[in-house]
Design a protein that fits this description.
By secondary structure, this protein is of the alpha+beta class. It folds into 2 domains: 2-31 and 207-273, no CATH class; 40-189, Cation-dependent Mannose-6-phosphate Receptor, Chain A (Distorted Sandwich), CATH 2.70.130.10. 30% of the residues lie in helices and 25% in strands. The protein is built from 3 helices and 11 strands; from the N terminus they run αβββββββββββαα. The chain has helices at residues 2-32, 209-234, 247-273; strands at residues 43-46, 49-52, 61-64, 69-73, 95-101, 108-115, 126-129, 137-147, 150-160, 171-174, 179-186. Strands 7-8-9-11-10 form a 5-stranded mixed beta sheet, with no helix packed on it. A 4-stranded antiparallel beta sheet has the order 3-4-5-6, with no helix packed on it. A hairpin with a 6-residue loop joins strand 5 (95-101) and strand 6 (108-115). The radius of gyration is 29 Å and the shape is elongated.
Length: 281
């Protein structure tokens, strides 16, 4: 009888550990799978030249046209709002470029310069090959932001320059009012193939922060549950649910969760009917 009980305990313990292992393995795999967040519109082919401006989405490029205004753009990505100055209102989602007012001790947000496709802004981004010639770069046109109540026209001229692997600065010109021309030299603006061949996109590597968190969480939970089960079995000779570490706490937590759900449901019913549905004590 004792031997059968021991085998049953080992079986249950192994089943518990295996279930936990596969559960967190799924979470781990979901975390490390690379999600393609690139914009298809930023991959363009003109003649024999193919460009992928998604290679520039890791850079935030800044510039000024006067002492009054400053600009920032993250090509084919969301520009960090920290580069756009202080704003008393929430920033709109999907902003690729912004304008900030430089006067005063702290720069303040002036306006959005353009938005990524897919954020409800029209028209979508437009692309053409640089007029300097085949293989010289790409022109991206943004018309989906407003300027003094009218359409803002922003032409971003990406110039192929293989010597600029890390672009940080751009030239900005406004003429006439609300029509901007931005020039950016970058190796990422060169064709990806076949002629000339620009640098290949940087490979992602290393362990992501979320992956490290999942691994640590998996180890801690395994040690907590496994160690607690062994301790309760060997030292306290417990069986069933009592094998789990701190079962009273987890049962109490579950009970509090159920009570919270009931409270919320009763509150909603009270708002809809005007009558209280609380149980009398």
């Amino acid at each position: 009888m004792i031997r059968n009980t021991g085998y049953l305990f080992i079986f249950r313990f192994c089943l518990l550990i295996s279930t936990m292992f596969f559960f967190y393995l799924i979470l781990f795999l979901i975390n490390i799978i690379q999600v393609d967040s690139t914009l298809p519109a930023c991959r363009q082919t003109f003649g024999s030249n193919t460009y992928d401006l998604n290679r520039l989405s890791q850079f935030t490029i800044t510039g000024e046209d006067t002492l009054i205004y400053g600009y920032a753009i993250t090509p084919c990505g969301s520009v960090p709002t920290s580069q756009c100055g202080q704003n008393s209102q929430p920033f709109e989602q999907g902003m690729m470029a912004c304008q900030k007012r430089m006067l005063g001790p702290t720069p303040s947000f002036e306006s959005a310069m353009g938005f990524l496709d897919g954020y409800g802004k029209t028209p979508n981004l437009e692309f053409s090959e640089n007029t300097d010639g085949p293989g010289k770069g790409v022109i991206m046109t943004m018309r989906n932001a407003r300027c003094s109540g009218m359409e803002r026209l922003v032409k971003v001229i990406f110039i192929c320059d293989e010597s600029v692997a890390t672009p940080t600065r751009m030239e900005v010109e406004e003429f006439p009012v609300c029509q901007f021309t931005i020039r950016i030299k970058a190796a990422g603006a060169c064709p990806t193939g076949p002629s000339p061949t620009g640098p290949t996109p940087p490979e992602s590597g290393g362990t992501q922060g979320g992956t490290i968190f999942i691994i640590i969480l998996l180890v801690l939970i395994t040690v907590y549950v496994g160690g607690g089960v062994l301790y309760n079995r060997v030292h306290k000779h417990q069986t069933g649910l009592a094998l789990l570490p701190h079962p009273n706490f987890w049962l109490l937590l579950f009970g509090l969760f159920i009570d919270g759900c009931r409270f919320t449901l009763n509150f909603i019913r009270t708002l809809s009917t005007g009558r209280s549905t609380y149980n009398s004590v």
